[in-house]
TrEMBL record:
Gene3D superfamilies: Tetratricopeptide repeat domain (1.25.40.10). Residues 783-798 have a biased composition (Acidic residues). Residues 717-731 have a biased composition (Low complexity). One of its GO terms (biological process) is non-motile cilium assembly. TPR repeats lie at residues 207-240, 246-279, 459-492, 493-526, 527-560, 561-594, 595-628. This is Intraflagellar transport protein 88 homolog. It comes from Astyanax mexicanus (Blind cave fish). The keyword Cell cycle does not apply. Coiled coil: none annotated. Component of the IFT complex B, at least composed of IFT20, IFT22, IFT25, IFT27, IFT46, IFT52, TRAF3IP1/IFT54, IFT57, IFT74, IFT80, IFT81, and IFT88. Interacts with IFT20, IFT22, IFT25, IFT27, IFT52, TRAF3IP1, IFT74, IFT80 and IFT81. Interacts with IFT172. Interacts with IFT57. Interacts with IFT46. Interacts with IFT70B. Interacts with C2CD3. Interacts with ENTR1 (via N-terminus). Interacts with LRRC56. Interacts with DZIP1. Interacts with CCDC38. Interacts with CCDC146. Interacts with CFAP53. Residues 83-107, 697-798 are annotated as: Disordered. Positively regulates primary cilium biogenesis. Also involved in autophagy since it is required for trafficking of ATG16L and the expansion of the autophagic compartment. The keyword Oxidoreductase does not apply.
Length: 798
């Protein structure tokens, strides 16, 4: 105990004052203290006893260093706790709290709160439906919100709490309803709803909604009233809201342009360009000055347009400047984020307006469009759009093309041969295209190579190179270039189309079909693609699929006579004569000069025993090909078949006057005169014998000439000496053969056409064994198939 002592009163430490005497704590008289004894006998006395801290002097420590003793138990624990009890200072072991009292929803206040919540929910649902594109549902929700809100107002009036009506809720309901009316093109209802809001003086800033009303009038093309409301809204918007005022003034300017009041529009647009210039306003200002023909103002406005700040970062910001991985990760993350996409769209829009403005004013600001383009190029070079100068030069060349000045276009494009790779590739692509159109395939190939060397990833250059190889019939190599173009740009429709044609020429019909089906998925309404698909299915001997694609084709081009004729041909091959007649007749209506269609229709009426109707078709064929005797013979046969022998005789006589050496005509004249008992029968019989005899002599001469020619060739191949002598005979025989072939035969017209086009020999359909004329429509070869067989050349977009 010698090491234990009470803290001294005069020790200067943190625990000074613990030993100060307080009579309250005097324990000597506690036995006589009534209050203390009473407390001990109650629950208050069963509290844990108070423990006093004592100082413990540690041996070896300094004599004056002493501290009070601390408690040996942790706070909150007591020895008086029963054995087995747990520590529960918060009293959680007593069980859950009693449930809250249920709200009484029958009270007026609760009903009003529930109704207000329903109104707000309906407004939110209406807005969400509009955002999802379901405008009808959005309008229904807005109407329901309006009905609930009116019921809420009535309920407040009934409960005497009309002073607590929420104006913001009423405003939201009306504004959303008007907006949904406008979205559903219910303009009258929208205007009436907006008018209710605007006339209510209790709504703050409701006058701004006159802008929405003006927009509706603008949509209705009621421009004077739109301008009136725009100006009323402008008067109610303070100068602090500069951006809003600028937008309203821009709408006023556009309304004046629509009305043709360009001077008033210029006033508004000039004010905007002086206060807060933007690209659209500058472009509209140029349009106004162009409309009134003010050259100097056009130039000044163009200079203002190219000086408008875009407020976007430079592209160099997105190029890694060092090898810092953290910086490179950040740049990679922001390279294609929404902000950068917005910047690119804004820049692309500005470039579009500048290019359009330059092309518009170039012919108007100077004496020639070339001088105007040069001025625009100089202005652009000194602006932030330096890269547009080369595009303007290329547009200058395209303008030369539109004016049919090909030499100037070529000269302009050739200036780009020493420019940077992108521009050089674009110019060389256009030059290749021009030379290809002029069928100078060597030059087209040269410039296609130049464009590819400048930019190997330019799909247009690869297509032009493929085209030059295609015309040389090196289809395998052309297909490789088209495939490479597709690898660089999978949506390049020209490459896909040309690849399909190449596979078709190579006989790879399934691959060609695959290419055109892919192309049809991109170009849903392309008539050329549909025709190629129909042609491929016909080549694959699937006429039903061919007919299906042709039916889709005529839904796009219902007046194409060639497509209708092709449908008639397919139905005829399937044996459906009625459908074939329908489409052949429709083809004849749109193009009544197609010989194959006329021939089929005439033969159809002969087969169906309506020879009188067939006459009009063969007479039209006679007008189209007056030197083809076969059509006139068909007219005479139709007269004879219908029983009009006199008219048939006159027709045959007329044919004999035009074609006196035609044996068929004389043969039928002899037959008719014999049947009718006419005296001219002997005369025609004599002429017929003479014609037949001349025909036999001609055929013998042709035959002997061919034999002499063949004999000469055999002798020439036997020995060189005898070959020299026989060569003269052979050449003489060939010349004789050619001379004889050039003479018209007895049954040929003087201007004979090729045998594949029309068969001049005629067999009368009146005899016992009749042969009908050929009824197959002329098949369209690869060269005949639309213009789609033309290769898809590529020109830079304007």
């Amino acid at each position: 105990m010698e090491n234990i002592h009470l803290a001294a009163e005069d020790e200067d430490d943190l625990y000074t004052g613990y030993n100060d005497f307080n009579p309250t704590f005097d324990s000597e008289d506690l036995d006589n203290d009534v209050g203390f004894q009473q407390a001990v006998r109650t629950s208050h006395g069963r509290r844990p006893p108070v423990r006093f801290a004592i100082l413990i002097k540690i041996p070896g420590s300094d004599a004056g260093a002493a501290r009070p003793m601390t408690a040996v138990r942790a706070a909150g624990y007591s020895s008086s706790l029963a054995r087995g009890s747990t520590f529960d200072p918060l009293g959680q072991s007593k069980g859950p709290a009693p449930p809250l009292e249920a709200k009484n929803e029958d009270t007026p206040e609760e009903k009003i709160k529930i109704l207000e919540k329903k109104v707000n929910d309906l407004i939110e649902e209406s807005c969400m439906a509009q955002a999802n594109g379901d405008l009808q549902l959005a309008l229904e929700k807005a109407k329901e919100a309006g009905r609930k809100e009116r019921a809420l107002v009535r309920q407040r009036e009934q409960t005497g709490t009309a002073d607590h009506i929420t104006l913001d809720l009423t405003y939201s309901v009306l504004f959303n309803l008007a907006n949904q009316y406008a979205n559903n093109d219910m303009n009258t209802e929208a205007l009436n709803t907006y008018q209710v809001i605007v006339k209510n003086k209790m709504f703050n800033n409701a006058g701004r909604l006159k802008v929405n009303m003006a927009n509706i009038y603008f949509k209705q093309k009621n421009y004077p009233k739109a301008i009136k409301f725009y100006r009323m809204a402008l008067d109610q918007i303070s100068n602090a809201h500069t951006e809003m005022r600028i937008k309203i003034m821009q709408n006023i300017g556009v309304a004046f342009i629509r009305m043709g009041q360009y001077s008033d529009a210029i006033t508004s647009l000039e004010h905007i360009m002086s206060e807060s210039p933007n690209i659209k306003t500058g472009f509209n200002l140029i349009l106004c000055y162009y409309a009134i023909g003010d050259r100097e103002k056009m130039k000044k406005s163009f200079q203002k347009l190219i000086c408008v700040p875009l407020g976007i970062d430079e592209e160099d910001k997105y190029i890694p400047a060092n090898d810092d991985p953290h910086t490179n990760l950040v740049i990679e993350a922001i390279k294609n984020d929404q902000l950068h996409q917005m910047e690119r769209e804004r820049k692309a829009l500005a470039e579009k307006y500048i290019m359009t403005s330059a092309k518009l004013i170039a012919p108007a600001i100077e004496t020639s469009f070339a001088a105007g383009f040069d001025w625009c190029v100089d202005m652009v070079k000194s602006s932030q759009y330096v890269e547009l100068a080369n595009d303007l030069e290329i547009n200058k060349a395209i303008t030369y093309l539109r004016q049919k000045d090909f030499n100037q276009a070529v000269e302009t494009l050739k200036m780009f041969e020493k420019k940077d790779s992108r521009v050089k590739s674009a110019a060389a692509t256009n030059l290749s295209f021009l030379y290809f159109l002029e069928k100078d395939f060597d030059q087209a190939d040269r410039y296609a190579d130049l464009a590819m060397n400048a930019d190997r990833y330019n799909p247009a250059a690869l297509i032009n190179k493929g085209n030059t190889v295609f015309v040389k019939q090196d289809y395998e190599k052309a297909a490789e270039f088209y495939k490479e173009a597709l690898r660089n740009d999978s949506s390049c429709t020209e490459a896909l189309y040309n690849l399909g044609l190449t596979h078709k020429r190579l006989g790879r019909l399934e691959e060609a079909l695959d290419s055109f089906i892919k192309l049809h998925a991109i170009l849903r309404n392309s008539a050329q693609v549909m025709y190629q698909l129909a042609s491929l299915y016909e080549m694959l001997e699937d006429p039903h699929q061919a007919i299906e694609w042709l039916m889709q084709l005529i839904s796009v081009t219902p007046t194409d006579p060639w497509v209708l004729a092709k449908l008639g041909e397919l139905y005829d091959s399937e044996g459906d004569k009625s459908q074939a007649f329908q489409y052949y007749y429709e083809s004849f209506r749109y193009f009544p000069s197609n010989i194959s269609v006329i021939e089929w229709l005439g033969a159809y009426y002969i087969d169906t025993q309506f020879c009188e109707k067939a006459i009009q078709y063969f007479e039209r064929a006679t007008l189209i090909q007056p030197n083809q005797v076969v059509w006139q013979l068909m007219v005479a046969s139709c007269y004879r078949r219908s029983g009009n022998y006199q008219k048939a005789l006159e027709t045959y006589k007329d044919i004999h006057r035009k074609f006196p050496d035609n044996a068929e005509c004389l043969r039928f004249l002899v037959r008719l005169c014999t049947d009718m008992g006419l005296k001219e029968v002997q005369e025609y019989a004599t002429k017929l014998k003479k014609v037949e005899k001349m025909k036999e002599i001609r055929e013998q001469r042709v035959k002997s000439g061919r034999e002499n020619s063949a004999r000469g060739r055999r002798e020439g191949s036997a020995s060189s000496d005898s070959g020299q002598s026989s060569h003269g005979a052979s050449a003489k025989g060939e010349r004789l053969s050619v001379t004889l072939r050039s003479l018209p035969g007895s049954n040929e017209p003087y201007e004979a056409s090729s045998q594949g086009e029309i068969d001049a020999s005629y067999v009368d359909p009146l005899g016992p064994q009749i042969e009908r004329p050929k009824t197959a429509a002329k098949k369209r070869t690869d060269e005949d198939e639309f213009e789609d067989e033309e290769l898809g050349d590529d020109l830079l977009p304007e």
